[in-house]
Design goal:
With 205 residues, the chain is an alpha/beta fold. The chain has 5 helices and 9 strands, in the order βββαβββαααβαββ. The protein has 2 domains: 132 residues, P-loop containing nucleotide triphosphate hydrolases (Rossmann fold); 54 residues. A hairpin with a 2-residue loop joins β1 and β2.
Length: 205
C-alpha cells in the first residue's frame, strides 16, 4: 500500500502553512516526519485523517482519492488510527474500554497489545489515574486495535523515558510490518534509532 501527497497546499486562518507538498509514504516501514515548529507537521496528519481539508492538491491512498478539489472522504470512512499528542482518551471509560472502543479487533490482538505495551495491570484504571507515558501506551493500543490501514502518531515517544523509547518504536514497527500498515510519525525531537528499524525520513521546512 502507499499514500501519495500530491501538490498539497494548506492555509489556516489566511496564513499559509505549507505549499506544493509532495510525499510518497509506503506501508510496512516507519515514515518519520521532521521539521521546525510551525512547519505544518501536525496539520499534515490532520489532513491525512480528514480532520482538515486542504486548500488544494490531492491525498491518494492506493490510487483512491481521499481529498482533492472535487472529492473528500469523511474521517470515519478513511480507516485511520490516530495517536494524538494529548492522547484523546475518553475520561469516563477505563483502559480496557478505551482500547476496545473501535470494536474492530479480536481477543488475540487485544492480549498481544496489552502485553507488548505493558499495560496488563492498568485495564481497570481510568485516564486520570495514569501517568503521561501510560496514557500514551493506551492511545497506541487503541489505534492499533482498530486495525487501521493508516496509523498516524503525533509525538510517539515524548512521554516515554529513554529506556522505553526504542521498545515502543520496535513494537509499533512490528505491527506495521505484520499488518502492512502505512505508519507516519511526527516528532519535534530527533528520533535516534541507529538503523535498528526500517524507516523512511521526510522533512517539512
Amino acid at each position: 500500500m502507499n499514500l501519495i501527497i500530491k501538490s498539497l497546499n494548506f492555509s489556516y486562518q489566511n496564513e499559509e502553512v505549507f505549499k506544493d507538498l509532495n510525499f510518497n509514504f509506503n506501508s510496512g516501514v516507519l515514515n518519520l516526519i521532521s521539521g521546525p515548529s510551525g512547519s505544518g507537521k501536525t496539520s499534515l496528519l490532520n489532513l491525512i485523517a480528514g480532520l482538515e481539508k486542504p486548500s488544494s492538491g490531492s491525498i491518494i491512498l492506493n490510487d483512491v482519492i481521499q481529498s482533492d478539489n472535487d472529492k473528500f472522504v469523511e474521517p470515519e470512512n478513511r480507516n485511520v488510527g490516530f495517536v494524538f499528542q494529548d492522547f484523546a482518551l475518553f475520561p469516563h471509560l477505563n483502559v480496557k474500554q478505551n482500547i476496545e472502543f473501535s470494536g474492530k479487533g479480536n481477543e488475540d490482538l487485544f492480549n498481544k497489545l496489552i502485553n507488548r505495551l505493558s499495560i496488563v495491570s492498568k485495564l481497570t484504571k481510568y485516564p486520570h489515574e495514569l501517568s503521561g507515558g501510560q496514557k500514551q501506551r493506551v492511545s497506541i493500543a487503541r489505534a492499533l486495535f482498530s486495525e487501521p490501514k493508516i496509523l498516524l502518531i503525533d509525538e510517539p515517544i515524548s512521554n516515554q523515558d529513554k529506556n522505553n523509547k526504542i521498545e515502543i518504536l520496535e513494537m509499533i514497527s512490528e505491527f506495521v510490518k505484520e499488518k502492512e500498515i502505512i505508519c507516519i510519525l511526527v516528532s519535534h525531537e530527533e528520533i535516534n534509532i541507529d538503523g535498528q528499524l526500517e524507516t523512511s525520513s521526510f522533512n517539512l521546512s
